[in-house]
């Protein structure tokens, strides 16, 4: 069994290496921000051919001058948002997993440390630096703006990862050791699961303009984005007309929407995210 897992992992590494090489060679065919390029490279490193396929389907322009039209679909914007989140979180999560594996701490403590590390790296580096130029160049404002979106998204990532990690380690204890190849294959599977779980959350965030998706940087054209992130995500949270469930139309301005929120609908997103996080911790505690 151990030999089979090692062979599978080595084969996966070969596929991941080829996927990363393809993205590097094909760099010019995806006129996107450097941060997003790095994000897709990390996704390809962990998700192998799946990452390469999603790169082709979402950001690689089929013909010159078609990039803006190619990425305009919402599902592609959400893939970009999800992968950007997962890529940033993965650096902190996997790094923390390597460290905690040497500490021999309980699984719930390990998952908690990985969660904190993933959130901080994703929030303070990948999200904040990516948003900095879009909020007037202020890193502090970018940090404030991206706290809630990153937190909501990270909870989904961790929930999906925890299930796969716990099941994998129970099936084969060797997958808990970074010195063994199956550990890295398990991390890849866990990140795929995390991306799947957090995808609906990112759809909500992008659709409500609380998170950025993909931006086109085609030559000769201004940067374009169908769902630009707001200067202040928390302000958009409370004023975006899309969020207002059962909103009241005003008499003075026909067709306008009241700025009052339907609180149960607003809080449901937070509760769903919290349930996902608590589920991840409960699974880890059960292990």
Secondary structure layout plus pairing:
Elements: H1 2-25, H2 34-47, H3 49-58, H4 67-70, H5 74-103, H6 107-132, H7 139-171, H8 181-207, H9 233-239, H10 263-286
Helix pairs in contact: 1-2, 1-3, 1-8, 2-3, 2-5, 5-6, 5-7, 5-8, 6-7, 6-10, 7-8, 7-10
Could you please describe the fold and organization of this structure?
The chain contains ten helices and no strands. It is mainly alpha-helical and 287 residues long. The relative contact order is 0.13. Mean pLDDT is 82; it is low at 221-265.
Please give a handful of descriptors for the protein shown.
287 residues, 10 helices, mainly alpha, globular
Short description:
This protein is mostly helical.
Low-confidence stretches: 221-265
The chain-level mean pLDDT equals: 82
Please tell me what the overall shape is. Answer: globular
How many runs of DSSP E, i.e. beta strands?
0
Largest sheet: none
